[in-house]
Amino acid sequence: MADDVDLAQQLEQIHLDRALAFRQHESLPRTGRCHNCGEPLPTDALFCDAACEKDYQRLRRMRAQRLS
Ligand SMILES: [Zn+2]
Fold this sequence. Notes:
Blueprint: H1 2-26, H2 50-67
The protein binds zinc ion.
């Protein structure tokens, strides 16, 4: 019984995390520069590559955890 509740809460947390990550990403303005390193980008991309995007998300998560 208790296990079922834990599992449900975990699943709910995963959904929340995904929804939050999606919203954060969606709300990023397209500035023509990489949001992580500030490198100018030729396209309307948000980051120069996957590594920069991962870096940015990691920093953002760390910042969010410090605030909560
Ligand atoms: Zn970059």
